[in-house]
Amino acid sequence: MASVEVKGFLKNSLAMLVAKGLDKVLAMVLVIYLSRRLGPEAYGKLETANVFVTLFGILILLGVDKPLVSETARDRSRAGAILTNVLALKLVAGVAAGALIYAVAILMRYPQSTARLIYMVAFSFFFNSLAGSFYAVFNGFERFEYETLTTAVAKLSKLILSLIALSLGYGAMGVGVAYLGGSLINLAVSIYFTLRRFTGLELRIDRGIIKTIFLAGLPFALDLLFVQIYFNIDSVMLSRLADEATVGWYRIAYQFVFAFDLIPTAISISAFPLFARLYPISLEEAVAIYRKIFRYLLVLSIPMAAGVTLLGGKMVALIFGSGYFNSAAILRIIIWTTPFIFLTSLQGRVLGAIGRSKEMALVTGAGALFNILFNMIAIPLYGAEGAALATVATEIASFSLYSFFIRKHLGRVGMVKALLLSLLSSLLMGFVIFYLRGFNLFINIIIGATLYLGAMVVVGGISREDLIWAVDLVKGKVRRLRPF
Fold first, then answer.
1. How far apart are CA 297 and CA 251, in angstroms?
2. In this predicted model, what pLDDT tens digit does every residue of 290-311 receive, in sequence order?
3. C-alpha distances out from residue 333 to 81, 180, 226, 351, Å
4. For residue 388, what pLDDT band results from cuts at 50, 70 and 90?
């Protein structure tokens, strides 16, 4: 791969890491404040609204932003026309989704306060969905820094508005209004940057474009739907089979998974347009970069899961308070989704980028079905811990299917050695952390990270080239990837 391609990928990965990192930091600050201020029951009510709307919100997203990225990357002169028709599709879909959300909320007999919160969050989701299409234009032009800035403004606005609402005593409903305000700001800023820096809107509906984008987006829509089912159906089921406090405890444990997810998300988003261009012209280079990224994600995610398993109780108590003591046991289980989420995030994006989106949808569909069936058995027996087990099992199954299709199109990855070395180093790290468990949490984290890195260097799990590449990612320098 030409050095300019590597340079662009490094720059875009760093930009997306900053964007997603900023997003996660601001989101985590908000979650910490909301969970402590509202308490498990009211926070569980807010999370019930969030996961309910997200589950049905796929009808608004339609999966059309991915084709918008791909088409813009291939021909930037058509960005305005495609964007206009994508927005038209979402406007129509938003009306249909809103009606469905209203009807299902009534059928599920949610309390009136929860139902009103659901409707407020639904409006917020709709405006954020429209903003997502403008983000797709940024990504298609490979100018990810604009998403960084827009995300920062939107999240900061949402945080400030939520703080104001709670300080005035408006509770969860006030937070819902703050969500709506933040989404409107998100949309306004994304529109401004798109019209000012990239492309205008062509106010003409083109049935050909709508049909093409809609059909191209269907596999992505199915993938999004299935992903949302197996990430959110457990919380919806808990809200009906248990109570809203249990949902609050469960979602707090999930926050650690969401926080770590910024790394594979940022890297895979940056890799999508790169693979879309590279795969048809240089399979060898595409395979080389896939293997390298896969290995990095593997050796990074395993110690994260191991460390949180041992230190999760301290983390929950320090960050969220004693009211979420029950989240610690859930966290020790659900954190083991992290290694598989790291890898499947990359695998799914790569399959979509090389034109195998139907296979991607097949994997997530099977995962969604597996998750529903597992939750139907596990939640009545084990409650939130059962839901966590179902999520881990689903990720393992999805990873196995994704690996089958990746091997079919890109060949064998050959990561057994990297896996064994990472597990060995993590085991050593775990013994030391367990022995020093009485120490301060931050000291444990520093010692554990240093020990893992040192062990990986000693056993050859991290090479000199890997360390140089890590520095290059920060500095934005260029080095050619070489096949393994």
1. 24
2. 787 888 888 889 999 999 999 9
3. 47, 33, 22, 29
4. very high
The count of residues in the chain is 484
What are the residues whose beta carbons fall under 8 Å from the beta carbon of 328, sequence distance 6 or more?
253, 312, 313, 316, 317
In the block, tokens 């990612």 appear at: 473
Q: Is 199 helix (H, G, I), strand (E, B) or coil?
A: coil
Instruction: Tell me what pLDDT residue 269 has.
Output: 67
Rounded to whole angstroms, the Cα distance separating 114 from 92 reads 26
157 domain residue, yes or no: yes
Alpha-helical regions (H) of 321-356: 327-334, 338-353
Within-domain flag for 482: no
Residues 6+ apart with CB under 8 A from 464: none
CA distance 272 to 290: 11
Nearest to 266 by CA among 6, 11, 10, 20: 20
SS (H, E, C) 170-197: CHHHHHHHHHHHHHHHHHHHHHHHHHHH
What is the maximal distance between C-alpha atoms in the chain? 67
Residue type, 9: F
End-to-end CA distance of the chain: 14
CB 86 within 8 A of CB 156: no
Asked if residue 481 is part of any domain, the answer here is no
User: What's the angle, vertex CA 431, arms to CA 428 and CA 436, rounded to 5?
Assistant: 130
Show the domain range for 326.
Answer: 3-475
Q: Classify 62 as helix, strand or coil.
A: coil
Chain centre to alpha carbon of residue 282: 29
Positive/negative CA dihedral, 53, 59, 60, 64 = positive
Question: Quick one: which of 13, 11, 473 has its CA closest to 264?
Answer: 13
Residue 208 CB burial class (10 angstroms; 0-12, 13-18, ≥19): exposed
Secondary structure of the chain: what % helix, strand, coil (to 5)?
A: 85, 0, 15
Q: Is residue 434 part of a domain?
A: yes
Task: Give the tens place of pLDDT for each residue, 297-346.
Answer: 888 899 999 999 999 889 998 888 888 888 999 999 999 999 999 988 88
**307, containing H or E segment:** helix 283-320
The domain total for the chain is 1
Q: How far apart are CA 143 and CA 243, in angstroms?
A: 44
